[in-house]
Amino acid sequence: MSDTTAAWYRRPLPRPGARTRLLCFPHGGGSASAYGNWPALLPDTVELYAVQYPGHADRIAEPLHTDMHALADAAADAARPLLERPVALYGHSLGALAAYETAVRLETAGHPPLRLIVSGMPPPHRVRPGAVHLGTDLELIAELRRLEGFPDELLAHPDLLDLVLRTARADYALAETYRPAARPVPGVPLSVHRATGDPELTAAEAADWARSTTGPVRHQTFPGGHFHLAEDPAPVLLDLITDLVSDMSARRRSPPPAWVGTAAPAVRHP
């Protein structure tokens, strides 16, 4: 694995015999650690790689991304060494958009993901423009509190608070300034996860993800709010595993792409 790939994709639990790789994109302000407890809940056939965005956690010295397309270009390029096995992508909130744009690039390059699972975010054509990233620190804190993603203990640590707000502001810019590019609709199989108490994704918006792919679409709802997967990831992972088992069974019945067994072709950016 190259240094670039290792920087972007963290492997908490190596599984050399795994048949599928699951690339997980965290929410805005989050880091690879958001998926730290997932590998223990996954079968040995699935190897998880958690995305670490530049400027987050131990990549703090790197510039933060504020353009979704540039971030997805880099994420897709970094994923190339992982593509000798089938991959699926999962993304929550901001991570749903990052995973979608990365999946588009992988499919364009000729190695489409097994599946894309998106959670807690409207589809690209319905992302709500906003100006949270331009607001004051107090306005940004209020927004984070609304989503139950801001522990009050941070207020007692000014240096840590500054770091959290800097990261959150850049991540809000990623989502609020994002506009999908004009291009053919991808064909990746899609699963859409929505929590019944999540204010960030309505039932109508979840249903409209179907316009973002020509492939099959599944919808699943879960109890809880926007961060339901942090409170109890087991139902999410059970649904995800069910999808991947079905996808791998279908893959075994189909001939592999011509590039399997050789170096994966270079990613072409749309």
Put the structure in a nutshell.
It contains 8 helices and 7 strands. It has one domain (3-128, 183-252): 3-Layer(aba) Sandwich (Rossmann fold).
Q: Which features does this protein show?
A:
270 residues, alpha/beta
Strand numbers in spatial order across the main sheet? 1-3-2-4-5-6-7
Intertermini distance: 25 Å
Summarize the amount of helix as a percent range: 25-40%
Give the CATH topology.
Rossmann fold
Rg from alpha-carbon coordinates: 18 Å
CATH architecture: 3-Layer(aba) Sandwich
Number of strands: 7
Mean pLDDT, as a whole number?
89
Catalogue the unreliable spans. Answer: 256-270
Describe this structure in words.
The protein is an alpha/beta fold. The chain has one domain (3-128, 183-252): Rossmann fold (3-Layer(aba) Sandwich), CATH 3.40.50. Helices cover 33% and strands 13% of the residues. It is built from 8 helices and 7 strands; from the N terminus they run H-E-E-E-H-E-H-E-H-H-E-H-E-H-H. The protein has helices spanning 3-8, 68-79, 94-108, 137-146, 158-176, 203-207, 228-231, 234-252; strands at residues 9-10, 20-25, 46-51, 87-92, 116-119, 190-195, 217-222. A 7-stranded mixed β-sheet has the order 1-3-2-4-5-6-7. Strand 6 (190-195), helix 6 (203-207) and strand 7 (217-222) form a beta-alpha-beta unit. The relative contact order is 0.16.
Which secondary structure elements does this structure contain, and how are they paired or packed?
Blueprint (H helix, E strand, L loop, with lengths): L2 H6 E2 L9 E6 L20 E6 L16 H12 L7 E6 L1 H15 L7 E4 L17 H10 L11 H19 L13 E6 L7 H5 L9 E6 L5 H4 L2 H19 L18
Parallel strand pairs: 2-3, 2-4, 4-5, 5-6, 6-7
Antiparallel strand pairs: 1-3
